Amino acid sequence: MTTKVQGVVARVAGEPAPLEQIVLDDPGPGEVLVRVLASGVCHTDLHFQMGHYGPDTLPVLMGHEGAGVVEAVGPGVQQPKVGDYVVLAWRAPCGQCRFCRVGLPHLCAASLNAEPRQRSPEGDVIPTIMGLGTFATHTVVAALQAVPIPRGVPPEQASLIGCGVMTGLGAVFYTAGVRAGSTVAVFGSGAVGTSVIQGARLARAAKVIAVDLEPRKLDWARQFGATHTVNARDGDPVAQIKELTDGFGVDYAFEAVGSPKVLSQALESRDLAGVAVLIGVPGADAQIEFPAQKFFGMGGSLRVSWYGDCLPTRDFPLLAQMYLRGELLLDELITRKIALDEVQSALSRWSGVRPSARSSRSVPDQCRKRAPAR
């Protein structure tokens, strides 16, 4: 049996991604069908649309930050159940690979995904971004990618837990292990950067310094917990950070931009034995350059954070509870709610690619998207 749904499909690099009719097959063994209630609009989706990850990534059903309700389960699925309210994760540890076997499931080398169940009316398979495809009314994912959370978290807020918020908080709690009373610098105050700032606040860092080029984003950073801000247009951000830390530098520096230049600044802004964490995804041609002797002399470490080194089945419910207790700010991350047929308009704010006439079809009101604070 198949279901006719609607989804935003990128087919040609740099061209508009219209809303299309898609034929969705039933979930197979170990898979579930999810009705998508909300999805975040993330810069990663734009990178796919523009072809930045290579021509082999297109066509693709876009979207990877989603929340919804399980409507059907495939053979052998015990959890989640039909009717469960879930956040979708783009990594689901397999439990069998070399990392899972030694107790490092956050490094899983064979993350679970559903078989591609989305097809065009003509029968052509349409892959999904990160095995999710949340810019659609429905999607099929691996059962372990659908993580139940309390229904008290609204869908728009819940969808943000699925990627950007989890990445930022996980980088603080798991990748870096930020200590209470420590000093932190965060380069980039977009959705991920402000989530790092929230994590540092929740970890009780004594000083949290936000670095960006836009005053508007620095204002957001203060809202989420930055104690100090540095506008990199006003001079060397490393010097400004050193001035704010008695000349020493910070204990932890996070790069949430994906720029080699900014990563070099993050490395230089550390105190002796400080930790630098790379979160931003570099471009395909990006090269890291930093004096090896200086790196050795400063000690400490450079770490890469994949998805905040999280375990979605453990961490999504924890973040949901933090939101319900008023500790984690999610409402403030939602800058605008739009319908599914307006996704291209949201992406165009970044790319300049104009929506096509085909992207104007309406969808049910419950299929809402948000344009993120980035």
Q: Quick summary of this structure?
A:
The chain is α/β, with parallel strands linked by helices and 374 residues long. It has helices spanning 43-49, 155-176, 191-202, 215-224, 237-244, 260-268, 292-298, 312-324, 343-351; strands spanning 2-10, 19-25, 31-40, 60-61, 65-73, 85-88, 118-119, 138-142, 146-148, 183-187, 207-212, 228-231, 250-255, 270-278, 301-304, 334-339, 368-372. It folds into two domains: 2-153 and 330-372, Medium-chain alcohol dehydrogenases, catalytic domain (Quinone Oxidoreductase, Chain A, domain 1); 164-307, 3-Layer(aba) Sandwich (Rossmann fold), CATH 3.40.50.
Estimate the global geometry from the Cα principal axes: globular
- The span between the termini is 40 Å
Q: What is the gyration radius calculated from CA atoms?
A: 21 Å
Strand percentage lies at: 25-35%
CATH architecture name of the largest domain: Alpha-Beta Complex
- The class by helix and strand makeup works out as alpha/beta
The tally of beta strands, per DSSP, is: 17
Task: Return residue spans where pLDDT drops below 50 for at least 5 consecutive residues.
Answer: 355-374
Helix content bin: 25-40%
CATH secondary-structure class of the largest domain: Alpha Beta
Full CATH superfamily name of the largest domain: Medium-chain alcohol dehydrogenases, catalytic domain
